[in-house]
Design a protein that fits this description.
single chain; 343 residues; Phosphatase 2c, domain 1; 2 domains; seven-stranded antiparallel sheet
Length: 343
């Protein structure tokens, strides 16, 4: 009886092991085919993927990519956790079929995901309660984070475009960025909030704070490499955090049909310049032969591939928004110049 039980057990164990091995081999094979297929797809559009010199060969794996098409907007989004232990980038796009209004956001968390998740989950309803006023929305969300102790150790940057008809209202806090493209030309962009920039450094010092620069490291205020962020209340309540604020810069851009907005986290902008992105996006779309939503998704993936190849060490997010249709009369060339709205 004992021998029979043991023998049957060994047979079952062997069958289970063989089945598990086969499943693992099939999974690895499918994964390899997926990676090879994606790399082939990139190469099809002229993208060469090479790992940074001296590093181990890396496989490019897009964590998430999608596209959205409505009567007024084409949107392509790509995100990758890359080499980081956690994914702390979030995106939000709120568009309705037949509606000329659209809300587009990229949030880049730091110190954990509690603050970025709170902002992501509450931004839309806070924006509506604030009657679509972006500065008030940022203020309300920042105070909300202050009142939630579990979020105090973390924070998030935010870059937002609210498109209403032919006007885009832009808000940015931190070092995520929006670039406004017309063809292959940069019309305007947000300006990153870095502690060592003349404007931010002066503001921090006037508030009684200081910027610290260590050898081989980025200039920092309160340990942060950006001088504005939502949250980070544990740092902001300490003397070393004096000067860190959540108030966004606000701009208004007059839009024309086929204009493009590129929203991205600093994983892209750390290694790519505005003009480089503008020229690259335009060239990629020409090679693709289309400017629809699926083409924008591929272009967003291309941006991530380029950033990784150039040595980015951060989470990566890119959102491309094409203005497909404008209900009201398009502005003249003089009216289409960007306008900056002071705080």
């Amino acid at each position: 009886m004992t021998f029979k039980y043991s023998f049957n057990y060994l047979i079952l164990l062997a069958l289970f092991s063989a089945s598990a091995l086969t499943a693992a081999q099939e999974s690895e094979s499918n994964k390899r085919k997926h990676e090879e297929s994606f790399e082939s797809e990139l190469e099809r559009y002229g993208i060469q993927w090479h790992s940074p010199e001296g590093s181990k060969k890396q496989k490019l794996q897009i964590s998430a990519a999608r596209h959205i098409a409505t009567s007024h907007f084409d949107i392509g989004i790509a995100q990758d956790q890359h080499i980081r232990d956690h994914m702390e980038d979030r995106t939000l796009s709120d568009v309705e079929a037949g509606d000329s209004n659209g809300l587009f956001c990229v949030f880049d968390g730091h110190g954990g995901s509690k603050s970025v998740d709170h902002v992501y989950e509450n931004f839309q309803k806070t924006f509506e309660h604030a009657e679509n006023c972006l500065p008030l929305t940022f203020q309300k969300l920042d105070f909300s984070l202050m009142n939630h102790a579990e979020t105090h150790r973390s924070g998030t940057t935010a870059v937002v475009a609210y498109v209403k008809g032919a006007t885009a209202t832009i808000a940015n806090t931190g070092d995520s960025r929006i670039v406004f493209l017309r063809g292959n030309q940069v019309i305007d962009s947000t300006v990153d909030h870095k502690p060592d920039s003349e404007k931010e450094s002066s503001r921090i010092k006037d508030a009684g704070g200081f910027v610290h620069t260590a050898d081989g490291d980025d200039p920092r205020v309160g340990g942060l490499s950006c001088s504005r962020a939502l949250g980070d209340w544990q740092i902001r309540n300490h003397p070393i955090g004096v000067g860190i604020i959540a108030a966004p810069d606000i701009k208004e851009w007059a839009l024309q049909k086929n204009d493009m907005l590129v929203l991205a986290s600093d994983g892209i902008w750390d290694v790519m310049k505005n003009d480089e992105v503008a020229q690259g996006v335009d060239s990629f779309l020409i090679k693709h032969g289309s400017i629809d939503a699926p083409a924008l998704e591929k272009t967003a993936q291309w941006l991530l591939a380029q950033a990784i190849e150039k040595g980015s060490q951060d989470n990566l997010t890119a959102m491309l928004v094409r203005i497909k249709k404008i209900d009201k009369e398009e502005p003249s060339s003089q009216e289409s110049l960007p306008k900056t709205q002071p705080l």
